[in-house]
Every structure is written in structure tokens, then in C-alpha cells.
Design brief:
Elements (H helix, E strand, L loop, with lengths): L1 H12 L17 E3 L5 H5 L3 H6 L12 H14 L12 H8 L2 H7 L8 H15 L4 E5 L6 H14 L5 E8 H5 L5 E10 L4 E5 L9 E4 H9 L15 E6 L3
Antiparallel strand pairs: 1-6, 2-7, 3-4, 3-7, 4-5, 5-6
């Protein structure tokens, strides 16, 4: 006990590391880390959060956000394996099951990452590979206008009713986080309609834990074109890819 007390006292005495003058907040002004605002998750059923959050694992490379998110979505819909001999599917195992060399190359370290249409196609291949009979739909907004927001809200509202479906969002991560200007894929964890905000379950766990963003900001993030620095993905915009297993 004396050793533990001494160690604790020593840790308290360590000064905070000096902040680099070029540093900036972890999240942008329009995002809130979920641990700072747990009211919705404590008061609402939030079926998607409880079904999917445990299956959201770190992407295995800096380019693997798509396979990480698709794996989390499928695992969340399937749920905990029934038998002791069964294991929870990994990102690498899902890639092997699809046999898609292009997806594997795009997801490898240094890979280009996927375009939105590839996320749609690869998700369909993954569902087929695991034998999951699901309806898949997608929404690719053309602008941050009222009609596109209404479509977005309709999908979020339906998704929040049960854990039989999942929405993956392709978006410019920097619009939400204030960090890099580039495309990213993550899983929707909850929709708080009363406060008009969405919970993003991050596979980019090197930098983030789940965070809330307003629907307006998320819509803006989906329609902002990818910058030229991302090569073949220049000009790419995003949207929703929804898996519905309730058939």
C-alpha cells in the first residue's frame, strides 16, 4: 500500500507536457466526444450502439477504414457466436472470404482507400461471402440542401428503430474532426433526433473514440469533395451505405 501511494504521488508530481505551438484540439468545434455527453445513451434504447460498439475494432492500416467498418457492421448484425469453437470474424478474415484482391490492395498500408461506389460494391460482396441475406441500399447526396437532409434524417430514423440494420458513412473526416482533409468510412452508432446529432463509431482508433456530430455537419462532410492530395480519390464525395437484415 505504501508503494502504491508513493507511486501515485510521484505521478501527480509529473508536470503536463508542453503543448506544441502547432497543435490543435482533437475534435473540431462541431464534434463532441461521447464520454462528455452520455445522456442519450443512458436514457434511450440506442439499439445500434449496444449491438455494434463492441464489434468496432481499429482499422488494421491507415487505409483500411472501409474493411474495418464493413466487418464491424456484419459482426454486429450477426452478433456473438453461439459456439465456443467459433470466433469473431476479423477484417483480414473477411477480406480472405471475399477473395477481392483489389479491396485488399486498397486497404493495405499505403493503399489508396476506396471510392464510394467501391464501398457499395465491396459491401455487397462481403454480404454474399458470409451468407448474410440482407437488403443493401445507399444514399449519395448531391448537396447539403433541405431535400438531401430530409432523406438523410429518414434513413437515420429508420436505422435507430432496431439493430437489424446498420449505416456506414463515407465522409470527409476533417469536416467533423478539424483534422486532415480526406475521405473516411465509419459506422453510425446512434441518432439523437431531439438534439439532431449522430454518434460516429470510429475505426480510426489511433486518433479517436466515438464522437457526436450534428446532422448538418455530417451532411456537409459527405458532400465535400476529396482534395487533390489524395490522388485517384480527388473529387470523391460520400454518403450512406445501409445494410438491412430485417427481411
Amino acid at each position: 500500500m505504501r508503494l502504491l501511494f508513493t507511486l501515485s504521488a510521484a505521478l501527480l508530481a509529473i508536470p503536463a507536457l508542453a503543448q506544441d505551438e502547432d497543435d490543435y484540439p482533437k475534435l473540431g468545434p462541431d464534434a463532441t466526444v461521447f464520454t462528455a455527453d452520455t445522456s442519450y445513451l443512458r436514457s434511450a434504447p440506442a439499439p445500434d450502439y449496444w449491438a455494434f460498439s463492441a464489434f468496432v475494432k481499429p482499422q488494421f492500416s491507415s487505409s483500411a477504414c472501409s474493411i474495418a467498418t464493413v466487418t464491424a457492421a456484419i459482426n454486429g448484425i450477426i452478433g456473438q457466436p453461439e459456439w465456443a469453437s467459433e470466433t469473431i470474424m476479423t477484417q483480414e478474415e473477411l477480406l480472405d472470404l471475399t477473395g477481392n484482391a483489389e479491396w485488399a490492395a486498397l486497404s493495405a498500408e499505403g493503399g489508396d482507400g476506396v471510392a464510394f461506389h467501391q464501398l457499395v460494391d465491396f459491401t455487397a460482396e462481403a454480404l454474399l461471402a458470409v451468407g448474410l441475406s440482407s437488403l443493401m441500399t445507399y444514399f449519395k447526396p448531391t448537396g447539403a440542401d433541405a431535400d438531401n437532409k430530409a432523406r438523410m434524417i429518414d434513413m437515420l430514423t429508420k436505422n435507430e428503430l432496431s439493430a437489424n440494420d446498420a449505416i456506414m458513412v463515407y465522409f470527409n473526416q476533417g469536416v467533423v474532426t478539424g483534422d486532415w482533409d480526406g475521405p473516411h468510412v465509419a459506422l453510425i452508432g446512434a441518432y439523437d433526433a431531439a438534439n439532431d446529432k449522430v454518434l460516429i463509431l470510429e475505426v480510426d482508433q489511433h486518433g479517436y473514440i466515438p464522437y457526436w456530430a450534428s446532422t448538418d455537419v455530417l451532411l456537409q462532410a459527405m458532400v465535400k469533395p476529396t482534395s487533390a492530395e489524395h490522388g485517384v480519390l480527388e473529387g470523391e464525395t460520400g454518403g450512406f451505405v445501409m445494410i438491412d437484415a430485417a427481411r
